Every structure is written in C-alpha cells, then in structure tokens.
Amino acid sequence: MRKRVNGLLKNVLRLALTVSCCFTMNISNAEDGTLTNMKDSAAQYLSGSHSVYELSTIENNNSIPLEIAGTTYYFTPNSTDNFKLLSSLSNIGNSYLIETTADNALFYLKNGESTTYYTYDYSEFPNSLYYLTDAESIGNNTIIQYQ
Ramachandran region of residue 33, left (φ > 0), alpha (ψ -120 to 50) or beta? Predict the structure, then answer.
C-alpha cells in the first residue's frame, strides 16, 4: 500500500511540475512573440516600421539561420530589433516565407544584378505554436505535455 501511495505522489508531483513549467514558460514568453502569441506578435512587428536584412551564406556570432530552397542563409538583427521574435520566426521555417516587394520585405537576397525580397505570411500562422504530445504512459493513465 505504501509503495502505491508513493508512486501516486510521485506522479502527482511530476504532473504539478510539468504544468508549472509550462505555465511559467507561457507567461515569461508572452511578450517575446513565442509560442502563444506568435501570430499577433509577427503581425504587429511586420506591419510596422522595421529593418530589412540582407541574407548571406556567411555566418557570424550573432546571426540567425534561415533556410530557403535548401540553402541556409544568415542574417544579423540590429540591436534595436526584437532578436527573440526574429529568431522564433526563422525557427518556423520557410513554410510561411513568401516573395514580396521591397516595401513589405523583411529579408532580401542579392543574386548578381537581381534582388529577391521575402517576408512572412503571418496571416497563415497558427494561433498557437503549442501542441500536445504523449509524454509518459503509466498504466491506464497518460500524462500529456506541452511542446
């Protein structure tokens, strides 16, 4: 009986820690444009005045990678720009990256005499980047975690 109670207490504590960590992450990142409000943060940032970054194949210490058509390019945000948001955007991948005009661009890529401009189609972003997965199964009980 004691083993069963200890096992149950361990599971309750594990669940409490998982939920606590998730809510802490959710609250601390709410302003950064990550996970819970990426769509709104990207819309606000990209519709306002922001820098336009040149993409390069050369990486430096502060650069953020961005893959386009199988090639990894890098850009280095200005210190005044939102580094976390730009990094989160690049982590989304190129699924939402679209060619655009110079007026709407976030990135540009020079190829000889031509220049291609890119931005994110944030209207297509999901409302939340959280999703649920099975973390651990214990008997008939399953603990779910946010990722």
Answer: left
C-alpha triplet 104, 38, 71: angle, nearest 5°: 60
CA distance 15 to 100: 46
The mean per-residue pLDDT over the stretch 48-68 comes to: 92
Residue 17 has pLDDT above 90, yes or no: no
The whole-model pTM stands at: 0.63
Q: How many whole angstroms separate alpha carbon 110 and alpha carbon 55?
A: 8
Decide if 12 contacts 63 (C-beta within 8 A).
Answer: no
DSSP 36: G
The set of residues, in sequence order, having a beta carbon less than 8 Å from that of 133 and lying 6+ positions away, is 144, 145, 147
- How many angstroms separate the CA atoms of 53 and 89, rounded? 14
